[in-house]
Amino acid sequence: MEIFKLVFSPIQVNTFILADKSGDCAIIDCGCYDDDEFREFTGFVSAKGLNPVLLLNTHCHLDHIFGNRNMLKEYNLGAWSCELDELNRKNARQHALLFGLIMEEPPVPAKFITDNQLISFGSTELTALHVPGHAPGSIAFYSEKNGCVFTGDALFAGSIGRTDLPGGNYETLINSINNKLFTLPPTTVVYAGHGSETTIEREIKSNPFFRPA
Ligand SMILES: [Zn+2]
Ligand SMILES: [Zn+2]
Predict the structure, then answer these.
(1) What is the distance in angstroms between the CA of the first residue and the CA of the last residue of the chain?
(2) pTM for this model (two decimals)
(3) 207 with 158: CB under 8 angstroms?
(4) pLDDT tens-digit profile of 119-170?
(5) In terms of CB atoms within 10 Å, which end of the chain has fewer, N or C?
(6) Kind and range of the H or E run holding 72
(7) What is the chain's mean pLDDT, rounded?
(8) Ligand nearest to the CA of 164
(9) CA distance readout (Å), 207 to 134, 178, 184, 188
(10) Which residues, in sequence order, are CB contacts of 97 under 8 Å at separation 6+?
(11) What's the 132 CA to ligand 1 centre distance in angstroms?
(12) What is the 138 CA–ligand 1 centroid distance (Å)?
């Protein structure tokens, strides 16, 4: 599997393209804010000769689902997300206005993801890990074979997601990270929803939210 990262929207969200060797690819969080950004995305995908077959959402905050409507229109792909984030999806339009951003009503998900669900495309397999706390329906996507995990806004390089938004809870997030992410092999590469890559080992050792006093 090859991983490509594009950054979109005024909120600078990471959009990941996971390319299986068959040419099929899964998209994690299509953050394209407008049609221009979506054209940049489709141009990239077709230049690489890739065929999008899955749209996965780490959670349904506006920045992570900006592109869902265009993904449905262009590739006929409905998003897979956690049912516990339906409230965030339904509130996304209203939430966008607080940022001075305009978005259309995000489409209804094609499928709801559950904890430990196996998701496969081509010969690539991902395990969904429910990591609530930043959002009630936060999901991390783990590839054991590729030694990487896509953490959305749960865990960042040197930080964690905010917990002051509706459905957020600090203790819950700390527990999710300790129990679901920090138990992964230390060399696992972390691809977060914003910012740069890191590893599980580096975060265990140096993330200020966890470093022992
Ligand atoms: Zn978020
Ligand atoms: Zn975000």
Answers:
(1) 39
(2) 0.97
(3) yes
(4) 999 999 999 999 999 999 999 999 999 999 999 999 999 999 999 999 999 9
(5) C
(6) helix 68-75
(7) 97
(8) 1
(9) 16, 12, 16, 15
(10) none
(11) 11
(12) 8
Task: Tell me how far the alpha carbon of residue 183 lies from the centroid of ligand 1, in angstroms.
Answer: 22
Neighbours of 76 (CB within 10 A): 9
Task: Write out the two tokens for 52.
Answer: 């999008």
Distance 46 CA to ligand 2 centre (A): 26
Q: Give the ligand with the smallest distance to the CA of 88.
A: 1
| Tens-digit pLDDT profile for residues 94-117 | 999 999 999 999 999 999 999 999
Beta strand 79-81 with 51-56 is: parallel
Strands 111-112, 79-81: pairing kind: parallel
* Ligand 2 centroid distance, CA of 2 (Å): 23
- Would you call 173 helix, strand, or coil by DSSP? helix
Task: Give dist(CA 99, CA 186) in Å, integer.
Answer: 37
Residue with tokens 């590729």: 146
* Ligand 2 geometric centre to CA of 133 (Å): 13
Q: Which two tokens stand for residue 131?
A: 């990591």
Q: How far apart are CA 61 and CA 25, in angstroms?
A: 23
Cα(15) to ligand 1 centroid in Å equals 13
Q: How far is the CA of 22 from the centre of ligand 1 (A)?
A: 31
Is residue 60 within 8 A of residue 47, CB to CB? The reply is no
